[in-house]
Amino acid sequence: MAERRKFKKRYCKYCESKVDYIDYKDLNLLKISLSERFKIMPRRLTGNCKRHQELVTVAIKRARQTALIPYIVDRKNVVENPFELIR
Amino acid sequence: MNNYETLYVLKPTLTDEETASNIAKIEEILVREGAEILATNRMGMRKLAYPVEKNERGVYTIVYFKAPGTIVNELERNLKFNEEVIKYLTVRYTKVKEVIQFEKLIAAVIKREESVKTEAPAPAVAVAVATETTEA
């Protein structure tokens, strides 16, 4: 239980920058909610509010469908600089 | 009439003329079916996040248009049968906030096209080459 929380509970970054709609092509916005293995980060770690978490979830799934971000990153499927391929 | 945005990815092996003709063909389908094309964003060659039909790269194009809902079936049927298209995705913008975003996106595309026309297109190309070398 010692390292129960790896990340500090934070504020919602999307609320701070007043985002109304998260576009799936805007990878800089999606980056906030992605882990280094391109998983969707849970709300308890990122501190996103519920509304923005729902928006970003849909956007990430669309970005995956269009090959903008990978579905998985593992040892067989290595991305050298994970966030380099983001514009 | 709904607001739609279609993203499609063409094969990287095509020449510039073939790419242009494919884009023209898809726009022709839209016009024939009665859609109003608002803007076209040619994002150009990009690295794909994962291989699609053994392609590592793809030419991304986005079309913004206003059309009745029946058009989407016809468009996606054509994209499915076009062998040069490796990925496509159509998104509808209906809610008020979504429509605002939709208009912003179109405005951004049109603004960039104008700036490209007025300025020399050289800087954009130089940036693209630089990013590719860092990726490789």
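The interface with chain B takes residues 20-21, 23-25, 62, 64-71, 77, 79, 81, 84-85, 87 of chain A (CB under 8 Å).
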